[in-house]
Amino acid sequence: VQLQASGGGLVQAGGSLRLSCAASGFTLDDYAIGWFRQAPGKEREGVLCASSSDGSTYYADSVKGRFTISRDNAKNTVYLQMNSLKPEDTAVYYCKADQITVATMCRFMPYDYWGQGTQVTVSS
């Protein structure tokens, strides 16, 4: 059972980037998906979490209207589309899959292991 976040890079402010979260060993569509980030010197935060069953989503206020989640079930992959990027979006981004509520997932982030994540750097 593995999740791998990828697609990070360097982008100018105002630009867009799409991160991927590919699953192996399980079917992502059976799980809620969460995207999280941690900037240098800051606490990790839940960015966007989305249920696969009831359509519920949780957005951090800072990304509302700019970030969206989509799924490609054929590829067992979830994407985080990030538009109108700001320098404050610079962080390492992580993805998780779980079967808890999206609010619990994004607000309480009940995880001990995070893996490497993918670095997003937004230049001003």
Main attributes?
124 residues, mainly beta, 6-stranded mixed sheet, 4-stranded antiparallel sheet
Query: What is the SS-derived class?
Result: mainly beta
Sum up the overall morphology in one term.
globular
Number of strands: 10
Q: How far is the first residue's CA from the last residue's CA?
A: 38 Å
Oligomeric status of the shown chains? single chain
Question: Which percent bin holds the helix content?
Answer: under 10%
Main sheet properties: 6 strands, mixed
Largest sheet: spatial strand order = 2-10-9-4-5-6
Low-confidence stretches: none
Give me the strand/helix succession: EEEEEEEEEHE
What is Rg?
Answer: 13 Å
Mean pLDDT: 95
Q: How many alpha or pi helices? A: 1
Please indicate the percent range of residues in DSSP E strands (runs of 2 or more): over 45%
